[in-house]
Design a protein that fits this description.
This protein is of the alpha/beta class. The chain contains 23 helices and 11 strands. It has helices spanning 2-25, 29-53, 60-70, 73-82, 102-110, 146-149, 154-157, 168-176, 187-198, 205-221, 246-256, 260-264, 282-294, 319-329, 347-354, 369-375, 386-391, 403-408, 420-423, 427-438, 442-454, 460-482, 496-502; strands at 87-92, 116-119, 143-145, 160-162, 226-231, 268-276, 299-305, 333-338, 358-361, 381-384, 413-415. Helix 16 links the parallel strand 9 and strand 10 (381-384). It is globular and about 110 Å long. The model is unreliable at 1-13 and 42-55 (pLDDT under 50).
């Protein structure tokens, strides 16, 4: 911009000199001298004014630094919402359902013959029991489908109310119980209570597919291009409780994602199949999931999930099973949760030995320097989940998070959302936390975005297409950033996490 201003000043000076030369040609020498002095002084002053008043922004890097230095938190969030983003590589489809969507989803499901009930009181119908035990009897706001309710006696059935008849106050309390939004809540609430409350709603494959499309539309509005999500193909039931085969469940997803609203989202979707890592039957479940995934082109990977601080699910337990599967079924990508604990251990290193190319979370990798050296500059990537790690108390504050150390020592990383429905957050919120807490440069932001496509398990032609699209949109975004745009016409999606922690919110606004 300064080059253009200097050129303008040169043109003005040339015009002034030209007028003075004309006076010389007609013999008016004294006046020509005064003209030259006056014109030169005026042009010099004009040039100096244009030089000092021009904004010093010549690159996206400088523009981004100026944005961070001058923008309010709300302005920064709006710009990051407009930011074209790559992929979400660590996403649990069921945990990404925002609770305020559930009534509409349940209403549509009930039209297909399902009925859902919510536990709103405890009448001591069972002797003993524990809200964190297998039966979850003492857990309020648990949802069950009709075929489960029918197994209860009259006393216990009386503790449940039809979901669609909840009054406004009870419905609000039920939905709030599905968010991890209280200071005293943490990983026990998340792993042992929230999933038990939600699980009964997740028996209808069409409900889950509808929720995925809602997420696609929401992600599309904030500029996401690729979603690699974990779907629960082995838990679906008919309204009467009969098992639905994974083939039939996947066919429901396939048909729903072919609808116009899903295609219009602009988000390319591929799947992973999750296996709970600590039950006695986990090896059999892994064999079933791996075998099924190798037969389905949309399913790119298997993922071992569940509380990593339950040692029954330690990584090396699955090494013989995976070696046998690779011999009999061929290769399949693995993206496995590892290092999601707050004490040092070898789980990340052991998970790489299983054959994983991506590590979910990887928080305690910081305590394993040999594996850190191994992971520098690829080929492995860590899926970083900043909001999840804080709310589940794997870090008590962001100054403890190892993400910037990984990023700045060359370990490939990408931001992802994990269970964003339970966090009440968006992908934009992950970028906001990263920029705000770790002062990311524009080069680092671009690297995170490109990593989230480059390390996806999607086929090479699709990856190349996605990368080209994202880079083209990033270049357009950069031009707007250099011009000083704050994207005032953008209307972000506001969610509770950023509202509570950073006061970035519009009260009373709910997103689709």
């Amino acid at each position: 911009m300064r080059v253009a201003n200097v050129a303008a000043c040169g043109f003005a000076l040339a015009r002034a000199v030209g007028r003075c030369v004309q006076l010389l040609h007609v013999g008016r020498h004294a006046r020509a001298c005064r003209c030259l002095r006056t014109g030169f002084n005026a042009a010099t002053l004009l040039a100096f004014w244009l030089w000092v008043s021009a904004p010093v922004v010549a690159s996206p890097d400088a523009a981004f630094e100026r944005l961070k230095a001058t923008a309010t938190a709300t302005e920064l969030h709006r710009v990051l919402y407009a930011l074209p983003k790559g992929g979400d590589l660590h996403n649990h489809a069921s945990g990404s359902i925002h609770p305020d969507w559930l009534i509409d989803l349940a209403r549509a499901s009930e039209a297909r013959g399902y009925r859902y009930y919510v536990k709103t009181r405890i009448d001591n119908c069972r002797a003993g029991g524990n809200e964190f035990g297998a039966a979850r009897y003492l857990l309020l706001y648990r949802v069950v489908p009709q075929f489960v309710l029918d197994q209860f006696d009259d006393c216990e059935r009386g503790e449940y109310v039809p979901l669609l008849t909840l009054d406004a106050q009870t419905r609000d309390a039920w939905q709030r119980a599905l968010y991890l939004d209280k200071p005293f809540e943490g990983r026990a609430e998340f792993f042992e209570a929230q999933w038990s409350r939600l699980q009964g709603l997740l028996v209808d494959p069409r409900l889950s597919a509808d929720a995925l499309v809602r997420n696609m539309r929401s992600f599309g509005r904030e500029g996401l291009h690729y979603l690699e999500t974990q779907i629960p193909l082995f838990q679906f039931r008919t309204p009467t409780g009969d098992a639905i085969s994974p083939e039939d469940a996947l066919a429901v997803y396939r048909a729903r994602l072919n609808d116009s609203d899903a295609r219009a989202s602009g988000v390319t979707v591929r799947y992973q199949v999750a296996v709970l890592r600590f039950p006695p039957s986990a090896e059999q479940a892994l064999v079933q999931a791996y075998t099924f995934a190798t037969e389905q082109p949309e399913i790119l990977a298997v993922n071992l999930v569940g509380r990593e601080d339950n040692d029954k699910g330690h990584p090396l337990r699955f090494l013989p099973t995976l070696r046998a599967l690779r011999r009999s079924q061929g290769a399949l990508d693995l993206s496995i949760h590892a290092g999601e604990v707050d004490e040092p251990n070898s789980n990340v290193r052991d998970t790489l030995l299983l054959g994983a190319r991506r590590i979910g979370h990887g928080i305690n990798l910081i305590h394993d320097p040999d594996t850190m050296r191994l992971m520098r500059h690829g080929p492995y990537l860590i899926e970083i989940n900043l909001i999840s790690n804080l709310l589940l108390e794997y870090v008590s504050d962001y100054d403890q998070h190892p993400f910037p150390e990984y990023l700045r020592t060359g370990i490939p990383v990408a931001l992802s959302t994990d269970d964003r429905g339970m966090w009440d957050s968006t992908m934009t919120d992950e970028f906001f936390v990263a920029v705000r807490e770790f002062d990311l440069s524009w080069v680092e932001v671009r690297l995170l975005i490109e990593n989230s496509i480059s390390y996806g398990f999607v086929d090479a032609p699709t990856r190349a297409r996605l990368l080209a699209t994202v880079r083209r949109k990033l270049e357009r975004f950069e031009r707007a950033l250099v011009r000083g745009s704050r994207f005032e016409d953008v209307q972000p999606e506001y969610r509770g996490f950023l509202c509570r922690r950073y006061s970035v919110c519009v009260l009373g606004e709910s997103a689709d």
